[in-house]
From TrEMBL:
Keywords: ATP-binding, Kinase, Magnesium, Metal-binding, Nucleotide-binding, Thiamine biosynthesis, Transferase
Keyword Ion transport: no
SUPFAM superfamilies associated with the record: Ribokinase-like
EC number: 2.7.1.50
Organism placement in taxonomy: Bacteria, Pseudomonadati, Pseudomonadota, Alphaproteobacteria, Hyphomicrobiales
Record-level GO BP terms: thiamine biosynthetic process; thiamine diphosphate biosynthetic process
Pfam family, one: HK
Classification via Gene3D superfamilies: 3.40.1190.20
Cofactor(s) recorded in Swiss-Prot or TrEMBL: Mg(2+)
Protein name: hydroxyethylthiazole kinase
Length: 251
């Protein structure tokens, strides 16, 4: 399947018009910036990790983000509660296995929950390599880096948008997980949803960097750009390549 710029943009437009709710079991360092970035996309976040509240919060959302950044015993139990309740609703679940290569405990926990209802795995090269063999066939792999790649059933999509400042601000990468969950909640075609989210994120990073003097001023510019991005800006900057998994560039 080959997607055009207008296909991707329509997903973002649908999200802006409809709005969705996503519960984020994310790391404490990234909560504030994650919430603000999600709100700029019309994704309403909730963040509680309290065990007695997670079932009720997940019951009322359209997607779930699981981020392993600040992982402790309490948070691990909360993640399992979140996954259990998300499965009852059949909502999209994004897993961001932050730094799973650093400890065996983290790696084994990630491999364990990958056998649950994980819709999308968002990981960098090192993280995805460590988890190879543990990813179910029905989980969509998103590999982030200088170029982002989405490994679909029939095609691999490479998005070349973005800017170096995005790696210089704590939480920008973690916030992407919440954005992915929001896009996936509004678009049934999960491959289209993920490619659209990555493309919008990367294009906004480029535009914001042109307005910023450095990482400190980049963050507010990025949030403003997500909120106000126009179709013509997106279409002009999109860098998307589609490779058929049997070989051959589709677009």
């Amino acid at each position: 399947m080959s997607y055009k710029a207008e296909d991707l943009w329509q997903v973002f437009e649908n999200l802006r018009e409809r709005g969705v709710r996503v519960h984020c079991l994310t790391n404490s360092v990234a909560q504030s910036i994650t919430a603000n970035i999600m709100l700029a996309c019309n994704i309403v976040p909730s963040m509680t990790a309290a065990h007695d509240e997670i079932p009720a919060f997940v019951e009322g959302v359209d997607g779930l983000l699981v981020n392993l950044g600040t992982l402790d015993g309490k948070r691990r139990h909360g993640i399992r509660l979140g996954l259990e309740n998300a499965a009852k609703k059949s909502i999209p679940v994004v897993l961001d296995p932050v730094k799973v290569d650093r400890t065996d405990i983290r790696m084994e926990f990630a491999k364990d929950i990958l056998q649950e209802n994980i819709s999308i795995l968002k990981a960098n090269m090192t993280e995805s390599a460590g988890l190879s063999g543990a990813v179910r066939e029905d989980t969509l792999l998103v590999r982030t880096g200088n170029e982002d790649a989405v490994f679909g059933r029939e095609a691999t999509y490479t998005i070349g948008n973005g800017h170096a400042y995005m790696d210089k601000v704590t939480g920008i990468g973690c916030a992407l997980g919440g954005v992915l969950a929001g896009f996936a909640a509004v678009e049934p075609d999960q491959e289209l949803a993920v490619v659209a989210a990555l493309a919008v994120y990367g294009v906004c990073g480029e535009i914001a960097a042109e307005q910023a003097n450095g990482p400190g001023s980049f963050t507010p510019a990025f949030i403003d750009t997500l909120y106000g991005l126009k179709a013509d800006q997106f279409n002009e900057r999109l860098k998307l390549e589609t490779m058929n998994n049997k070989g051959g560039v589709l677009a």
